[in-house]
Amino acid sequence: MIAYVPGHPRPDHGRSQQKGSNILAETVLGEVKPGDKVLDMGTGSAIQAIFAASKSTNVTAVDINPHES
Question: Which of 35, 54, 55, 61 could form a disulfide with 43 if both were Cys (CB 3.0 to 4.6 A apart)?
């Protein structure tokens, strides 16, 4: 399981955004297996969900839009 909890240090804390994103992408690609169920909460651009979907067909990505009521 890969998790980021708002308000806590990110796994890539102290690294550049791109390097941190690359590390997370490599982790997703290494951990997700065919048939896994993946939930990407607070997905933003959904890039990690896209990486997960390259390994498993059961990926759900959700986010909220604070500007919608």
Answer: 61
Q: How many domains does the chain have?
A: 1
DSSP state of 66: T
- Burial grade of 37 (CB within 10 A; 0-12, 13-18, 19 or more): exposed
Q: Residue 16 is part of which domain span?
A: 1-69
For the stretch 13-64, pLDDT in tens is: 444 455 666 888 899 999 999 999 999 999 988 999 999 999 999 999 999 9
- Please report how many Cα atoms fall inside a 13 Å half-sphere around the Cα of residue 67, on the Cβ side: 0
Q: Please report the sign of the dihedral spanned by the C-alpha atoms of residue 4, residue 41, residue 16, residue 26.
A: positive
pTM for the full predicted model? 0.67
CB atoms within 10 A of CB 39: 13
